[in-house]
Amino acid sequence: MRTAGLWAVFLAVHVLIAALGWLYPSQPMGDVTLVYQPWSQSALTGGAIVGITESWVYPQPALLPMLLTQLIAWPLNGLVGVMGAYLIGWAVLITALDAIAFAVLVGRTGTAARRSAGWFWTAALALMGPIAMYRIDAVTVPMAVIAGCWLVKRPAIAALLLTVAAWVKIWPGALVVAAIAATRTRMRILLVFLATSAAVIVLLFLLGADQHLFGFLTEQTGRGLQIEAVFATPFMWMAAAGAASVDYSFEILTFQIGAPGVDVLAAVLTPLMAVVAVGILVVGAIKASRGASFPRLFPPLALALVAALIVTNKVGSPQFQSWLIAPVILWIVFDRTRSGLPAGIVLVLSGLTCLVYPLTYDGLLHAQWLPVLLLTARNVLVIVLLVIAIRALTRVPAARVGRRN
Predict the structure, then answer these.
(1) 245 sits in which H/E element
(2) 333: which residues sit within 8 A by CB, 6+ positions away?
(3) pTM exceeds 0.85
(4) Is 79:85 a contact under the CB 8 Å cutoff?
(5) Strands (E) located in 68-177
(6) What is the pLDDT of residues 330-388, one digit of tens each?
(7) For 317-327, how does the pLDDT look when each residue is reduced to its tens digit (9 = 90+)?
(8) Kind of pairing, strands 245-249 and 254-258?
(9) How far is CA 261 from CA 144, 237, 264, in A?
(10) pLDDT in tens, 181-201
């Protein structure tokens, strides 16, 4: 009965946030109608194929769920119009993917830890709102949850899922790296990752993507500092004081900071991300070499890597906060007693994210003090979460200590 109630609330939350996408300001489902639908429509009608005939900001397999949505939406086109049908189709697709992952997570009679993880996921979605559904990132979260749950018993399938997810949106690659460092089946995971990536690259090359094969990497290099990025926070206060500007980039369709020194900072952030990620990974590898158990090591390592990707990112899109959901779900599943603090922080982050976008986003674009304050609170809390995850990682005991505990 408890699991049935959880399922009912989980599905009801999906209906709620799907509807709120139509009601909230600032078009939180805008990416679906303004870019996903045209991209997929162009590919189906003989036009440009993003990632194949032209460079794209996403890895090429990200087009697949956009194309699948066209198939789901097709029967509704005559009833609610092309755009309305596509939005409904996208909501149905994400709800179905989440339901599959939820079934793997809690099933019919999940353990107490898995039910807790299910309630956490439900609450995070409700607090984050439509942004947790109407972005391509929403495709990768359930894939990461399924893969994480299977890492111990089905490591090869888990590695396959995580690799495919990383070829849709890069962030699940952090979970692949964490799994390679933390598990005893690291060679199997590494080989599956390499083989799957090689197969994707060969297929894309055969489809004619040779000139734009890694466009999703090169397209990011010239980006400026987005207004919601963690390192943009001081500049947003400068903008509130009239000493910096919020500028719109028509090339990448996003708002960026305009101020002296911003371009240098944006250029520094990418290598900084690499340094921080490598440092975290080295700590995790040392812990693994000293016999740290997978349930204690993997969750803080995975969360630290994902949080580092957000903190050091020059892009601060609100949907990035949804990346944190999967590592915390897995922390609750593997090590419930130590998951309370990171879970609570991510729930607060989810609520703050919705307050920033879409609820006060128009004010943020005008650098008004309240939305800038909300954004500051969210960005500071992401840094706090990173510190907590690293602290937990450094405190993971070696095998000898673990046996005494």
Answers:
(1) strand 245-249
(2) 105, 113, 114, 117, 148, 149
(3) yes
(4) yes
(5) none
(6) 999 999 999 999 999 999 999 999 999 999 999 999 999 999 999 999 999 999 999 99
(7) 999 999 999 99
(8) antiparallel
(9) 37, 15, 5
(10) 999 999 999 999 999 999 999
Peptide bond into 358 cis (omega under 30): yes
- Integer Cα distance of 161 and 26 in angstroms: 33
Q: Where are the domains of the chain?
A: 2-404
Q: Residue-wise over 206-245: b if at least 16 C-beta within 10 A, else e? A: eeebeebbebbeebeeebbbbbbbbbbbebbbbbbeeebe
Between CA 264 and CA 357 the distance in angstroms is 27
Cα–Cα distance for residue pair 72/82, rounded to 1 Å:
12
Look at residues 9, 23, 10, 91 and name the one whose alpha carbon lies nearest to residue 354.
23
- Burial zone of 23 (CB within 10 Å; 0-12 exposed, 13-18 middle, 19+ buried): exposed
- Cα–Cα distance for residue pair 398/53, rounded to 1 Å: 51
List the structure tokens of 220: 């990011």
Structure tokens at 392: 């937990």
User: Which three-class secondary structure state does DSSP give residue 109?
Assistant: coil
DSSP string, 293-318: -HHHHHHHHHHHHHHHHHHT-S---G
